[in-house]
């Protein structure tokens, strides 16, 4: 007896793909994505080719592709893009596993080997954003569950910090091309997690802007030194654990009143503590960025000014 299923209802497609039947019908009608057949009683059904196509479309859709763009691709190109994503994900998982083992064994050479293999194939921006950030998020969870100790975290973050500083030194060799703005980078008082701010400094310099890097745990009053400046000052800060989430509105209020209201300046804020900004009121001179949006903003402004 042949038990291989070759015909599928739209409910089958919903269960297998995770896409609601209503959405599948919309895709089918608006984008001619699938071509169902009909039984003698006029009930629609889908074959294996339809199912495979839908699964591939769903994979691309879940990885950030717009359905309108996917629908314009021939089936073979859709397969090709799926393979590219799978390959990239496998590469990322392998790198993260290698670095995780290096961390657990305090093995600097193993970290160096994994890093060199990666940096030979992609630029440093992708290394940090696509590889280091997911890894750092994962070790944050490992630390909170007591799987690793602070010693493990400090060991691996020190190695990553070295890589950022090497890349920063390289871009600092070129003089700034946008000299009307001055970036001042600092971490809030009692904040010691520096990697995000270090990388922001690298991106700002790489895009042709001068920076003053102040680093960890800077009291607000120390920033008053920059109020009497002919240039527009753009302060950049990064909050990972400090200030505590419930104290962030008060902290931003203080910064706004003490620093921003007294000079031609802005504050750019990044960090895990500020991922949910819905509870934070609007400030005219404060902008909130993720790392990708910061990079995009710097690149767009550099193109405008160049």
Question: What's the pLDDT, averaged over the residues?
Answer: 86
Separation, N- and C-terminal Cα atoms = 71 Å
CATH architecture of the largest domain: 3-Layer(aba) Sandwich
The radius of gyration over CA amounts to: 25 Å
Tally of individual domains: 3
Based on DSSP secondary structure assignment, what is the total number of beta strands? Answer: 7
* Amount of beta strand: 5-15%
- Spatially, the strands of the biggest sheet line up as 4-3-5-6-7
Which structural class fits the helix and strand makeup? alpha/beta
- Unreliable stretches covering 5 or more consecutive residues: none
* CATH-defined superfamily of the largest domain: Cobalamin-binding domain
In short:
The chain is an alpha/beta fold and 306 residues long. It has 11 helices and 7 strands.
Can you walk me through this structure?
There is one protein chain. By secondary structure, the chain is an alpha/beta fold. It has three domains: 64 residues, Multidrug-efflux Transporter Regulator, Chain: A, Domain 2 (Orthogonal Bundle); 91 residues, Methyltransferase, Methionine Synthase (B12-binding Domains), Chain A, domain 1 (Orthogonal Bundle), CATH 1.10.1240; 132 residues, Cobalamin-binding domain (Rossmann fold, 3-Layer(aba) Sandwich). Helix content is 53%, strand content 10%. It has eleven helices and seven strands. The strands form two sheets. The protein has a five-stranded parallel sheet with strand order 4-3-5-6-7, with helices on one face. A two-stranded antiparallel ribbon has the order 1-2. α10 links the parallel β5 and β6. α5 packs across α7 and α9 runs parallel beside α11. The longest helix has 30 residues. It is elongated and about 80 Å long. The mean pLDDT is 86.
